[in-house]
């Protein structure tokens, strides 16, 4: 984790803008008030019952907009939530196998894998190689290929069987 300070993203409001001698002022409806003293811009905002919000601090002179800040914050949060809702999270389910697994056990685990694939999840098959099985790692690949034959009608192999540490892995995803 970074220990840096979190940047404050809230813009300057109303009296906080008075630190700038003049600002380019834009009305709530988009009207240009031009470059005016910040105190005058604040008076215009207060007459309309709205807030003066600094939108571009780096500009020369800084740009301030007259708006309802509460409404602005609400709409920004609403947009952020809507964007988050449209994101799709990928769930990877892992199924562990062994080299000496029986056929009925493979069938049972493949049945679960088919359920996961039907729900749209990715499935990672792992064959753990114990002790002397490390002497013949191709046995793990053979188990994965047997499993692949049972799920190839509803899945696509994203990563072919590959050896990693003491595991032989294979990743399958549902067909579109």
Estimate percent helicity.
Answer: 25-40%
Tell me the distance between the termini. Answer: 37 Å
**Strand order of the biggest β-sheet:** 2-1-4-3
| Overall pLDDT score | 86
Q: Please describe the biggest sheet, giving its number of strands, its sense, and whether it closes into a barrel.
A: 4 strands, mixed
Describe the structure.
- The chain is of the alpha/beta class.
- The chain has two domains: 14-82, Ubiquitin-like (UB roll) (Roll); 92-174, Translation Initiation Factor IF3, CATH 3.30.110.10.
- The chain is built from four helices and eight strands; from the N terminus they run E-E-H-E-E-H-E-H-E-H-E-E.
- The protein has a four-stranded mixed beta sheet. It has a four-stranded mixed beta sheet with strand order 5-6-8-7, with helices on one face.
- Strand 3 (51-56) and strand 4 form a beta hairpin.
- It is rod-shaped and about 80 Å long.
Strand and helix layout:
Blueprint: E1 22-26, E2 32-37, H1 38-48, E3 51-56, E4 63-67, H2 69-86, E5 92-98, H3 103-118, E6 122-128, H4 138-151, E7 155-164, E8 167-174
Parallel strand pairs: 1-4, 5-6
Antiparallel strand pairs: 1-2, 3-4, 6-8, 7-8
């Amino acid at each position: 984790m970074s220990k840096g300070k979190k940047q404050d993203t809230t813009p300057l409001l109303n009296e906080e803008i008075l630190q700038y001698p003049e600002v380019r002022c834009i009305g709530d409806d988009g009207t240009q008030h031009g470059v005016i003293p910040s105190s005058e811009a604040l008076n215009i905002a207060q007459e309309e019952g709205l807030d003066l919000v600094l939108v571009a601090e780096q500009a020369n002179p800084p740009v301030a907009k007259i708006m309802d800040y509460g409404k602005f914050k609400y709409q920004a949060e609403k947009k952020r939530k809507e964007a988050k809702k449209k994101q799709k999270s990928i769930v990877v389910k892992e199924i562990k196998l062994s080299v000496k697994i029986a056929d009925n056990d493979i069938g049972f685990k493949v049945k679960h894998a088919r359920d996961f694939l039907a729900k749209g999840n990715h499935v990672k098959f792992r064959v753990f190689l114990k002790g002397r099985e490390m002497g013949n790692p191709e046995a793990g690949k053979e188990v994965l290929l047997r499993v692949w034959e049972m799920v190839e009608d509803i899945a696509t192999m994203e990563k072919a069987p590959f050896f990693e540490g003491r595991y032989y892995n294979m990743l399958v995803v549902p067909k579109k």
